[in-house]
Recover the amino acids of this structure.
């Protein structure tokens, strides 16, 4: 008898039992602590979640027995929830932190979140850390700093070094470095050589000069196409990670969180995973994925297992792959990355079934992880009981007059708007997935008998129950439950902060400080509203501060005046532009028009043009 047919039969049996017994009777012979109620409900919705394990993991007591050995029933009872919570208290909860994509905007926002998590004592409780694009920069550098420089959770000096080095990278910016060596310098050299050749061997004319002016930038773009991604890797290597390998970020003598850096392959759209600890890629470990990909039972299943990358991959290259924005950077190439997986002759078909023909030689073209999952929750949702998502990718904003041109204006044309809508849809689906997973846990918690073997269930299914989650969103919704007694970014600045560009260009002190302060304070409000059980009994007070040359920003955010808020708003009002010249000109124009002229000596917090 199939499991759905079994549930249908048991439902009819329960209805017949209660038809002959009053509500205060005990028709099923349960103990006095489990007095049955008339409004018993059978859970049929969770059959898909429990699958073939359901009959074995949900025993009943003296209710019904089947000759086939299948027995199972979940009944709503008065004391089921209380007993379930007591039984599951011994299970060690796994806490995960996901840092979303969004360029340096997300990096600065995540840095503020990490700073506050450390003060709350939660950072050293994180067991799984996932990063995408800009989030991978913050996640990888925090792990790298803790592994090679010191313990960032307990040592203030080590944390300050980590914070200072990341801020300096954002102040310098990667785009200028890459543009200089990947486009401007080769275009200039080629232009000078071509001009000399035209002058010496060809009679200068309007035609030859016009052709030359077109060929020079074309040559520069050609060099950019083939070198920009490698220059990005070189920038990360020089400024942040050196020659470190992924496997070196998890020393065996220290308890480190498992780091996931996420990227996307162009070959088949697979999720490509850089992890700091080995993942089970044996035939036995990959058996569920092979069944799902080859069995007719899963013919409509479109999911694809992630591609595990080797531990000897350089951290700089992994972060570069995770943050290689499509349209700006060419895909990074990785070769022979699956040589350590299913490499026996009779396993080649299994490898092809899992990852396609590209897996045979292991050559993949890799781009930004945000294309697959910009929030970085895909891996964490299956291994964590509690999940904190720091989302530096602002929600889609309404456009009252969308452009009808395909590519004009840049960033707002039909093509760009359509891409933004697709990203927003993926973001919403990620929200729904977490919500559904938590609902499944709450359903089982309500019908609490199955918790006798919850830990066994998680181990057998290799999948945890998501008990709680919270989103720390850059652009908070209108109905967000702000805590009245906690410090926060002024409401008029939140839309401006969320509108800051998402590239890897240099950021000003004002932009970095505003993003960090927003993440630093916002996480307190989110955890208080959605995950209060993770907070300590007595939370340390919010006191935002930055060391050395940025110290003045700690004092500035404590109690800014309306005039100071207006000045910050003026500075951030042009931060959405990707043109550095336009940002500088816009801020200069505001100073001239409004008479806001002050030097750092007169007002230490007035660094408005950066």
């Amino acid at each position: 008898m199939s499991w759905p047919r079994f549930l249908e039969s048991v439902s009819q049996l329960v209805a017949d039992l209660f038809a002959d017994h009053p509500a205060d009777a005990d028709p099923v012979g349960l103990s006095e602590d489990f007095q049955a109620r008339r409004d018993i409900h059978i859970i049929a919705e969770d059959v898909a979640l429990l699958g073939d394990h359901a009959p074995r993991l949900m025993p009943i007591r003296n209710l019904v027995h089947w000759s086939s050995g299948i027995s199972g029933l979940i009944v709503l009872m008065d004391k089921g929830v209380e007993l379930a919570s007591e039984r599951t208290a011994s299970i060690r909860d796994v806490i995960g932190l996901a840092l979303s994509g969004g360029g340096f905007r997300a990096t600065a926002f995540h840095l503020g979140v990490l700073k506050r998590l450390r003060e709350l004592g939660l950072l050293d409780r994180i067991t799984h850390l996932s990063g995408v694009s800009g989030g991978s920069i913050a996640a990888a550098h925090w792990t790298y700093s803790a592994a090679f420089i010191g313990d960032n959770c307990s040592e203030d000096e080590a944390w300050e070094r980590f914070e200072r080095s990341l801020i300096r990278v954002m102040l310098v910016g990667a785009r200028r470095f890459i543009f200089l060596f990947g486009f401007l310098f080769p275009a200039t050299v080629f232009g000078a050589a071509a001009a000399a050749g035209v002058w010496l061997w060809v009679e200068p004319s309007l035609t030859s000069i016009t052709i030359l002016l077109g060929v020079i930038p074309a040559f520069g773009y050609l060099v950019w196409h083939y070198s920009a991604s490698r220059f990005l890797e070189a920038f990360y290597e020089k400024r942040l990670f050196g020659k470190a390998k992924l496997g070196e970020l998890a020393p065996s003598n220290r308890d480190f969180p498992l780091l996931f850096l996420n990227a996307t392959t162009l070959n088949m759209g697979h999720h490509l995973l850089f992890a700091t600890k080995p993942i089970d890629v044996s035939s036995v470990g990959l058996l569920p994925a092979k069944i799902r990909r080859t069995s007719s039972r899963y013919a409509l299943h479109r999911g694809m297992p992630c591609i595990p990358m080797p531990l000897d991959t350089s951290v700089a290259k992994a972060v570069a792959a995770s943050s290689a924005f499509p349209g700006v950077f060419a895909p990074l190439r990785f070769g022979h990355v699956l040589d350590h997986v299913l490499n026996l002759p009779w396993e080649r078909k299994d490898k092809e079934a899992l990852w396609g023909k590209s897996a045979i030689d292991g050559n993949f073209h890799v781009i930004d992880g945000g294309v697959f999952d910009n929030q970085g929750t895909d891996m964490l949702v299956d291994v964590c009981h509690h999940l904190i998502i720091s989302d530096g990718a602002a929600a889609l904003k309404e456009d009252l007059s969308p452009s009808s041109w395909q590519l004009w204006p840049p960033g707002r044309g039909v093509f760009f708007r359509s891409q933004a809508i697709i990203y927003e849809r993926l973001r919403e689906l990620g929200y729904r997935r977490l919500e559904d997973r938590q609902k499944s846990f709450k359903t089982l918690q309500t019908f609490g008998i199955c918790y006798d073997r919850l830990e066994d269930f998680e181990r057998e299914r290799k999948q945890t129950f998501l008990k709680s989650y919270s989103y720390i969103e850059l652009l908070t919704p209108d109905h967000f439950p702000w805590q009245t007694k906690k410090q926060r970014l002024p409401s008029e600045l939140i839309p401006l902060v969320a509108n800051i560009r998402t590239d890897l260009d240099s950021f000003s002190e004002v932009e970095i400080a505003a993003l960090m302060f927003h993440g630093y304070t916002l996480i307190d409000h989110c955890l208080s509203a959605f995950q209060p059980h993770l907070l300590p009994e007595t939370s340390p007070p919010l006191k935002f501060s930055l060391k050395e040359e940025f110290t003045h920003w700690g004092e500035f955010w404590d109690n800014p005046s309306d005039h100071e808020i207006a000045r910050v708003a003026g500075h951030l009002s042009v931060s959405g532009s990707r043109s550095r010249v336009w940002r500088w000109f816009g801020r200069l124009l505001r100073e001239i028009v409004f008479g806001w002229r002050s030097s750092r000596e007169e007002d230490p917090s007035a660094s408005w043009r950066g």
The two ends are 71 Å apart (CA to CA). Confidence is low (pLDDT under 50) at residues 17-91, 596-602, 604-610. Residues 206-241 form the longest helix (36 residues).
